[in-house]
Amino acid sequence: ALKNQEIASTREAARRFNVPNSTLSTRLKGVQNRAISRANSHKLTDIEEESLQKWIISLDTRGAAPRPSTVRETANLLLAARGSIPVQIVGEKWVYNFVKRHPDLLTRFSKRYNYERAKCEDPKVIREWFSLVQKTILSYGIDSDDIYNFDETGFAMGLIATAKVITRREFYGRRALLQPGNREWVTAIECINASGWALPPCVIFKGKVFVESWFDGLPKDWRLEVSPNGWTSDKIGLRWLEKLFIPSTSSRI
């Protein structure tokens, strides 16, 4: 009606159509409705945000998930590439709002992961290894009952873990539990058969003399050893073969 000059003023048009005069004035100036316009915190276009999301997912897939500061710097590079003056930058909280807008992304704590271990989890390497194992089994006619896998693992005794405890009501927050000074290293040798049964473990404690009364209550078929540092050795490995592996497997033939 205003464009056709049917109504003389915006104030009169606002009164007739029952809308605020300020709203009508801003719409005539080209300002979009807040509900359909992009928020100021977005800064990047839809295409730019989609590209940034794909870049983050690509890095995460390769084990190099970026930090929030890196994502913020990349967003600023995208804004700088527009060539506008002054150059826009995103705020300190922009990255967290960006993550909230994209359900495929999540902020979480990272952990260190050894590169050599990660290489061993390469699907191509794993498939090649299993193919070689399968060819060897078929070539020599090896039965699953004759296939074993064994490994050793170590852990420290006396490490406090997170647990629910009962404390006085006056304390606020998590209670600290005193860490015992004894954190001696213990090694366990474990072995499993391809058909699904496992051998009793061999546990190696730190010590010079084996005292049987220390281990009261453990299963009788467990093998217990001692070494100066709680690690395995060639002699312990040989005794494991002679005293545990061969007797346990020979009885099943």
How does the SSE layout of this entry go?
Layout: H1 10-17, H2 21-28, H3 46-61, H4 68-80, H5 94-101, H6 115-120, H7 123-140, E1 148-156, E2 185-193, E3 202-206, E4 223-227, H8 234-250
Main location: nucleus
Subcellular location: Nucleus
Domain HTH CENPB-type: 36-108
What is the gist of this entry?
The protein is of the alpha+beta class and 253 residues long. The protein is 37% helix and 11% strand. It has helices at residues 10-17, 21-28, 46-61, 68-80, 94-101, 115-120, 123-140, 234-250, and strands at residues 148-156, 185-193, 202-206, 223-227.
Description:
With 253 residues, the protein is α+β, with helices and mostly antiparallel strands. The protein folds into four domains: 1-37, no CATH class; 43-111; 114-142; 147-165 and 179-252, no CATH class. 37% of the residues lie in helices and 11% in strands. It is built from eight helices and four strands, in the order αααααααββββα. The protein has helices at 10-17, 21-28, 46-61, 68-80, 94-101, 115-120, 123-140, 234-250, and strands at residues 148-156, 185-193, 202-206, 223-227. The chain has a four-stranded mixed sheet, with helices on one face. A hairpin with an 8-residue loop joins strand 2 and strand 3 (202-206). The radius of gyration is 34 Å and the shape is elongated. It starts with 9 loop residues before the first helix and ends with a helix. Mean pLDDT is 79; it is low at 164-168. One of its GO terms (cellular component) is nucleus. It holds the Pfam family HTH_psq. GO terms for molecular function: DNA binding. Its main location: nucleus. It is found in: Nucleus.
